[in-house]
Design a protein that fits this description.
Layout (H helix, E strand, L loop, with lengths): L10 E4 L6 H16 L8 E6 L5 H14 L3 E7 L2 H10 L4 E5 L8 E7 L8 H13 L11 E3 L3 H9 L10 E6 L5 H14 L4 E6 L21 H10 L3 E5 L6 E4 L8 H13 L6 E4 L5 H9 L3 E4 L4 H11 L3 E3 L5 E3 L5 E2 L3 H13 L3 H11 L6 E3 L4 H12 L5 E3 L4 E4 L3 E7 L6 E7 L3 H19 L7
Parallel strand pairs: 2-3, 2-4, 3-6, 7-8, 7-9, 11-12, 11-13
Antiparallel strand pairs: 1-5, 4-5, 9-10, 13-14, 14-15, 16-20, 17-18, 18-19, 19-20
Amino acid sequence: MNLTCFKAYDVRGRIGDNLDTDIARRIGAGFAHVMGARTEGRALRVVVGRDCRESSPELACAVMSGLRDQGAEVLDIGLAGTEEVYFATAHLGATGGIEITASHNPMDYNGMKLVGPGSRPIDPGSELAAIRAAAESDLEPLATPGGYAPVDTRPAFAAHVCDFVEADKLKPMKILVNSGNGTAGPTFDAIAAELARRGAPLDFVRVNHVPDGSFPNGVPNPLLPENRAMTAAPVRAEGAEMGVAWDGDFDRCFLFDEAGDFIDGEYVVALLAQSFLAGGTGETIVYDPRVVLNTRAVIAANGGSAVASKTGHAFVKAKMREVDAVYGGEMSAHHYFRDFYYCDSGMIPWLKIVEYLSRSGQSLGQCVAEMRADFPSSGEINFTVSDPAAVIEAIVAQLGDAADEIDRLDGASLGFADWRMNLRASNTEPLLRLNIETRGDRALLEAKVAELTALVRAAGGPAAAAG
């Protein structure tokens, strides 16, 4: 059997096409088989959680069946976000964890995110490949199946998230939260209750809060411009000071200021860096190389150490461990925290931003306005091309001689006196992604976007939608 639902980092497939309950059972069995060989005599225990998609409960049951067939004890945390699986895996000392989710993919998709002990990423080249090979084989069930136990780790998770701030020192604030009818609602409620217990003077307005796998307002993906109005409009209508929206499994959160304006991801990275560097901590911050000028400037101004990482959660987590970074951020709204097992979270970022605003005395819009003026950026522009590598080399050949810097960490980044660009192939989609930024010159930004768009089209194909 050839399981095409295995991708670069995880499992994604269309239900009834390349993902069903038999395949899910096989993957559960393959995970237990491979991870069990690494337990070295310790009990094989695997955390399983699921998002609110309509197909997720039966896929979760199938995964758990496969895990138990190979002797794993299943720790079922039920409806939960990906970061709750990360937390439970480390908190319970489990061998690994599996979240059944397709995040922001279309409704007829589902998938799995897999982690190992301590919630470290599964190595794509060795472990994930071995899990796929085992799942594609016909593993015989063990004579004695593994056990099963429902486990409620949400109170401990909520307490851990709230430990990132001093709740009773936050200023009064009205915050609109939009779960998009995804999985975030019940988990957010647990965090809000814990914040209130600790004395946080926060007033929350909830919209699209109840999990609903039919997604009556569309699959939650606030990164898409067409989806932002459903958060922006109620922020303005309610007079909220900040808006928060999550994707389906809430490992990413997206922020809106008091005017309902969307905050681009690179500015959120900079704000979180400032938050962790407050008080002269001198900590190390890891960032992705797509849009960097503002982030580097903020880290330097606040006495931190800036370290770049290749884009992608496995790369960022590995780099953070290597340099002992307190925080790592990607402009795509993935934010990673040393004190959260180096994992990404969609609940910690908005809470840290509330803490930062409480200290600064400024609104979110005021905090970001100067950054936008000093370092305007294009937003990610996507192109469909037949040979991304060839297009990248063609652009470097045309512009490289005039560049002050050429960086090959992730695709190609070219730095010039007044502007910078990064051009890279997506890790997960057949797209070429372009980001451009300037030092305070929006007219130059617009000119360079037009110039690079023409060059990429000439070298490789038509532009796809910006995103």
